[in-house]
Amino acid sequence: MTENATAARLDAAFAEAGVTGWLHAVDIDSGAQVGTGADQPVCTASVHKLCVLVALHELAAAGELELTEQVECPPTGRTPGPTGLAAMLDPVRLSLRDAAYLMMSVSDNTAADLLLRRVGLDAVNRTTARLGLTRTRAVYGFGEMLGTMREDAGPDGARALTDPHVITRLRALDPARTNRSTPRDMTRLLGALWRDEACPPEYGAAMRRIMGLQVWPHRLASGFPFDDVHVAGKTGSLPTLRNEVGVVEYPDGGRYAVAVFTRTAHTAAVLPAADAVIGTAARIAVDALRAP
């Protein structure tokens, strides 16, 4: 199948699911690639936690911090969220690497901001710049980003997020004003991580392990329902946005970095078709890369 034909299939899958989608997929070893809208600026949402993860391990590799360093997390002042430390009620003490596990496996916002306080946004941006991700930038911490949504939503708060007119004014949904990247930048980051170009091998292995422990099976992984195919990824979600980036590894040694970003006009929090098309589109792309 030609690259144009693959792009047409991807666009058709996104349209059938009722979303606008942008995708880039690359064979990590050969460099063969397919995509649609691969250079479109997109809001990363929690996908940007992957950049925090890499910056953390880069600093550890440079001897600027220890991954076993302990941090305190009191109950007050936690970044809101439905998972991990954000949902807990009591004081917690844990290591930086365990906070990284929570940040990636269940997208824990509190854990992410704990790490950002230790690492800093500037370090995250230095890491992505060093790796050549010229269109990737962290503007806010995760609590700050949620704070812009509260400000922009106005006095009706979360209820206003079902109003399409309110959605249009959210800074968090505007790539020019929030944490951003492109699908191609994200697959470049994943490729560097899987080839041990982002950090020395022991740190790369630690990050790949954490990414393989993500608990969500309903997006990227849904396209690869096989016991012998391994998917490691990171999701990201905001009102109308559903994203995931990750690596799909086959038993024959094939490994493919995939980045899928979607947006829909529907403001409903639950849209199974919009989640599932991320896996469908990723499978179309990887099948095209694996075709003889």
Automatic annotation (TrEMBL):
GO-annotated molecular function: hydrolase activity
Domain of life: Bacteria
Keyword Nucleotide-binding carried by entry: no
Keyword Transport: no
Domain (Beta-lactamase class A catalytic) ranges: 23-262
UniProt cross-references to InterPro entries, sorted A to Z: Beta-lactam/transpept-like (IPR012338), Beta-lactam_cat (IPR045155), Beta-lactam_class-A (IPR000871)
Keywords of this entry: Hydrolase
Organism: Streptomyces violaceorubidus
Pfam families: Beta-lactamase2 (PF13354)
PANTHER family per UniProt: BETA-LACTAMASE, BETA-LACTAMASE-TYPE TRANSPEPTIDASE FOLD CONTAINING PROTEIN
Entry protein name: Serine hydrolase
